[in-house]
Amino acid sequence: MSVAPTRVYAARLVGLPIFDPQGDQVGKVRDLVVSMRIEGAQPRVLGMVAEVFGRRRVFLPMTRVTTIDSGQVYTTGLLNMRRFEQRSTETLVMGQMLDRTVTIKSSGVSGTVYDVAMERARTRDWVLSRVAIREPNKGLRRRGQTHVVEWDDVVGLAREDDRQGATHLVAAINEMRPADAASMLHDLPFERRNAVAMALDDERLADVLEELPEEDQVGILERLDSERAADVLEEMSADDAADLIADLPPETAEILLQLMEPEEAEDVRRLMKYVENTAGGMMTPEPVILGPDATVADALAHVRNPELTPALASLVYVCRQPLECPTGKLLGLAHIQRLLREPPSTLVAGVLDDELEVLRPEATIDDVAAHLATYNLVAAPVVDENRRLLGAVTVDDLLDHMLPDNWRERAAERRG
């Protein structure tokens, strides 16, 4: 096995691509699996948790890792697609070791673990060799001093720690895409998952919740106090919040809706009135809506919003006042590709597609799929009987509802 550098820190490994001998990417590194021994003895690194297609997590033994460097990991061949299941004798470095409170034997200093390093031993096994520790903060503006010490100079890593926080794991999760963060959170032990979720800020937790299975969403939300849960729901997209609230006991759902900001709660209540798996049940009430006096420059400024998904940014909906759903009469749609070909001062109303068929809120999931396919769209308007815009259905909303709950696992199994 060739390795450069000889010492590798776990936090820097997370997210690195994994390649097979032909140079094809087969996954990403998500964690390290180690076998803890007696206090002070260097744990043996058994392998890596690799995330493959469909967010499936599988085990990559260290014996099959040929090269590690600053940008990638290479293996001897294809990965075994059997889902990773942690054994009682195994510990996850990122998921369970970060944020443990430990003591440096030689100095008596205590702090929390924020990284660990692994390297090759004389036996050719990989072992955890060093621990990066940060002392508690010294006041509001002074960060605690950091130390990197040998593994055998640390006490507290071979036992369970009821005081274990989440600071450094949260920092690692904050660097990931929401879908990747959700995958890591999902695989944590139950109590650890809830501790990390509670340490995330409202906006980040909302992003991650949208990517989690319903069971995890409900479990995390129910552990939050009502005020915090309402704040997190406000940060979620209205359609995702409506789906999540619908899974809660009715009395809990009503309490949270009462605590949310009235405008946010109204959007959610309105979506909850529609039947699941209809256009009304899938739509988002926050597409890009402009009046007929808006210019192309105005429209392009709106679709540049980084919080918009590509599907929502593909169309601008031109309506009469009011310009919030439910709007005044929908006048037509402006396609982003058409807008990019027009002078900035041109009125959007002059480049409208006003003949495109629209969807009604009761349209079935099959109707929505056929509509998007027929007109080669990634989003479509949903209107009422007076042609007032109620919202927009996007192709990602459609796929979320069309695919079975376990589609990711099934896709990974077919690939294996």
TrEMBL record:
Keywords: CBS domain. It comes from the Bacteria. InterPro entries: CBS_dom (IPR000644), CBS_dom_sf (IPR046342), Mg_transptr_MgtE_intracell_dom (IPR006668), MgtE_N_sf (IPR038076), MgtE_transporter (IPR006669), PRC-brl_dom (IPR027275), PRC_barrel-like_sf (IPR011033), SH3_actinomycetes (IPR058838). GO terms for molecular function: magnesium ion transmembrane transporter activity. SMART domains: CBS, MgtE_N. Residues 352-409 form the CBS domain. The keyword Glycosyltransferase does not apply. The keyword Cell wall biogenesis/degradation does not apply. SUPFAM superfamilies: CBS-domain pair, MgtE N-terminal domain-like, PRC-barrel domain. GO terms for cellular component: membrane. This is CBS domain-containing protein. It comes from Nocardioides immobilis. The lineage of its organism: Bacteria, Bacillati, Actinomycetota, Actinomycetes, Propionibacteriales.
